[in-house]
Amino acid sequence: MTDTERKDLAQAYQLMMQSAAWKHFEASLNLIAEKATKDEDSIDTLILAESIGFIGECRGRRAAIHKIRSNLSYVLEGLK
């Protein structure tokens, strides 16, 4: 990708971020992340010790949330 293409893409993303739809999406993503991690953090450790599969699911959700935020950060900050 050329510098001009990168700048054009960054401007397009910045324009998109100013929309009500983006603000709604971002708020929804934050709520999903907050709920997912809060629910997992409140589970009794004895229950977690009995279910390796559940621990894997928790790690997968957290990894997915982290990846989405990382990609968004790159798009919004890395393309400037």
Shape assignment: elongated
**Fraction of residues in helix:** over 70%
Distance between the termini: 13 Å
Helix/strand-derived category reads mainly alpha
| Main sheet specs | none
Please tell me the total number of domains: 1
- Order of helical and strand elements: HHHH
What is the beta-strand fraction?
under 5%
What is the number of helical segments per DSSP (H or I, 4+ residues)?
Answer: 4
- Can you count the beta strands? 0
Q: What is the averaged pLDDT score?
A: 81
Our Rg estimate from Cα atoms comes to 17 Å
Low-confidence stretches: none
Give a quick precis of the structure.
With 80 residues, the protein is mostly helical. The protein contains 4 helices and no strands.
Task: Write a structural description.
The protein has 80 residues and is mainly alpha-helical. It has one domain (3-78). Helices cover 88% and strands 0% of the residues. The chain has helices at 3-17, 20-41, 45-50, 52-78. It is elongated, with a radius of gyration of 17 Å. The mean pLDDT is 81.
What is the topological layout?
Elements: H1 3-17, H2 20-41, H3 45-50, H4 52-78
Essential attributes:
80 residues, elongated, 4 helices, mainly alpha, 0% strand
